Amino acid sequence: MIKITDQPLNTQAIIDSMASPEGGAVNVFIGTVRNVTKGKQVIRLEFEAYEPMATKELTKIMEEAKRKWPILKVAVHHRVGVLDISEVPVVIAVSTPHRAAGFEACQYIIDTLKQTVPIWKKEIFEDGEVWVAAHP
Amino acid sequence: MIVKLFGVTREIVGGPLLEVNDIATVGELKDYVMSTYPGIKKLNSLMVAVNSEYAKDDLTLNENDEIALIPPVSGG
Predict the structure, then answer these.
(1) What is the pLDDT of chain A when averaged over all its residues?
(2) Contact B74/A134, CB-based, under 8 Å?
(3) Chain B residues within 8 A of A52 when measuring between CB atoms
(4) Can you point out the beta strands (E) in chain A?
(5) Which of A53, A99, B37, B63 could form a disulfide with B52 if both were Cys (CB 3.0 to 4.6 A apart)?
């Protein structure tokens, strides 16, 4: 299941939704807002998404993950809007029969999300702001 | 035609939508926005999405297409 929302993510509900009788492992990646980038204090992050396309690209990533690994259930939830330090912008959960596939699939999904899904984040510092990855 | 803007491109242009005329292909659109807005030329990359799919430069644009500039993504 894919969700892009401006509301706080419910990590426990996502984990609970992974329950499956054939499942032997639930692998979860939780992204959190870090307070420092390259030695500079970060005050908050601001996320925005091109939602229909982001959902489409996430669907492709999930379908590819299902081709590569025996996935029973998978969920990607991404938050948009203003996030404070320690808040959670992304949760990825994968339910598989065995743990190795879960670790690999979860890493594949977050790595590919960061490369292809049209979501952007801006870091806000004391003295300015930067769109992450925008400039060399 | 109308082009949707996000993130750094929205800030460079100064709004969420950009109207362009006499643009035939994705490549022409990239050339136009990079020459009109030097800030866009300075980005690490610029992609164009047509109807919510990444598009190649030779794709022909139609009046009813949903077109968006996609600056470097940074989700997660």
Answers:
(1) 97
(2) yes
(3) 52
(4) 2-5, 25-31, 36-37, 40-49, 73-79, 81-84, 90-96, 119-125, 128-131
(5) A53
Cα–Cα distance, B42 to B10 (Å, whole number): 14
Residue B21 burial (CB < 10 Å; 0-12/13-18/19+)? exposed
pLDDT at A28: 98
Q: A37: closest CA among A118, A130, A117?
A: A130
- Per the CATH hierarchy, to which homologous superfamily does domain A2-131 belong? Molybdopterin biosynthesis MoaE subunit (3.90.1170.40)
Rounded to two decimals, the ipTM of the complex is 0.96
Grouping H, G, I as helix, E, B as strand and the rest as coil, residue A124 is strand
- pLDDT mean over A55-75: 98
- Domain B2-70: give its CATH superfamily: Beta-grasp domain (3.10.20.30)
Interface probe with B: pick from A4, A83, A120, most Cβ of B within 10 Å: A120
pLDDT band (50, 70, 90) for residue A23: very high
pLDDT at A75: 98
Confidence of residue A35 (pLDDT cuts 50, 70, 90): very high
Cα–Cα distance for residue pair A44/A125, rounded to 1 Å? 8
Q: What is the separation, in whole angstroms, between the first and last Cα of chain B? A: 31
**In terms of Cα–Cα distance, which of A131, A107, A105, A127 is closest to A119?**
A131
